[in-house]
Design a protein that fits this description.
The protein is an alpha/beta fold. It has one domain: NAD(P)-binding Rossmann-like Domain (Rossmann fold, 3-Layer(aba) Sandwich). About 45% of the residues lie in helices and about 15% in strands. It has a seven-stranded parallel beta sheet with strand order 3-2-1-4-5-6-7, sandwiched between helices. Helix 5 links the parallel strand 5 and strand 6. It starts with 9 loop residues before the first strand and ends in a 6-residue tail after the last strand.
């Protein structure tokens, strides 16, 4: 079997309806995994699952608000029932709300904390319970959390987002240690994506202009590219391929790691 072959693996991808999540679901399926797409965007999520099915993959959709503990339990049960197991979790769902620190709205900050931090932590909780020995799936596996280059740099206008994505990094490392020490058989890693021109990335570029930080979205994007040694923005496929690597046996001795997928921006 090739190191990146995911035949027989069963994956749950949060925020899988579009953007990096959808690209990740597609890449996992292309590597041979069965995929359950979880999202609050039901129509888009079902369409993404249907598109994968049309290509010959086994893909299903479940509605999941990652901030809701009970919905997580149901989503994991749905994964095991629909796919026949559960051994890969990609914690991709996230939100970004741009603001200068001087203008922070507590409600916006709490929203990012709830989705980005609580949502990721709950995903790890339910993955561990299902994947560990004696769990409903019980065969170990891998968790990949999606952090951000924002966790490694000081870019203006994203203090709240940076803080939450830094927390994802810490959750990853503590989760890897707990899993190893307690014999769960679950590797836990994260990636730090650079700026990708998804809907979220494009909104960020517009929002930093509104905040008075850049004269135009083009200038904001140019500033990111100028800080990136490889001289371009990221693509969803760049992120998806890194996730496949961390889910696969090619990374079998890798846990508690954060992999920059940012063209060098955060070094």
């Amino acid at each position: 079997m090739k190191a990146h072959d995911l035949q027989g693996r069963k994956a749950l991808v949060t925020g899988g309806a579009r953007g990096i999540g959808a690209a990740t679901a597609e890449a996992l399926a292309a590597a041979g995994a069965s995929v359950l797409i979880a999202d609050v965007m039901e129509d888009t999520g079902r369409a993404t699952a249907s598109a994968l099915t049309a290509k010959g993959a086994k893909a299903e959709f479940v509605r999941l608000d990652v901030t809701d503990d009970a919905q997580w339990a149901k989503a994991v049960d749905a994964t095991i029932e629909a796919l026949g197991g559960f051994d890969l979790l990609v914690n991709n769902a996230g939100v970004e709300i741009t603001s200068l620190i001087a203008d922070l709205d507590p409600a916006d900050l709490r929203r990012m904390l709830d989705v980005n931090v609580v949502g990721t932590a709950l995903g790890m909780k339910h993955a561990f319970r299902a994947m560990r020995p004696g769990g409903a799936a019980g065969k170990g596996g891998a968790v990949v959390n999606i952090s951000s280059v924002a966790a490694t740099i000081a870019f203006p206008g994203i203090a709240g987002y940076s803080a939450t994505k830094s927390a994802v990094d810490r959750l990853t490392r503590v989760g890897a240690m707990e899993s190893g020490k307690l014999g769960y058989g679950v590797r836990v890693n994260c990636i730090y994506p650079g700026l990708v021109p998804t809907a979220m990335g494009q909104k960020l570029a517009a929002d930093v202009v509104t905040a008075g930080l850049f004269p135009s979205a083009e200038a904001a994007i140019g500033a990111v590219i100028d800080q990136t040694p490889l001289g371009r923005l990221g693509e969803v496929g760049d992120m998806a391929d890194a996730v496949v690597f961390l889910c696969s046996d090619a990374s079998r001795f890798v846990t508690g790691a954060g992999l920059p997928v940012d063209g060098g921006m955060g070094m």
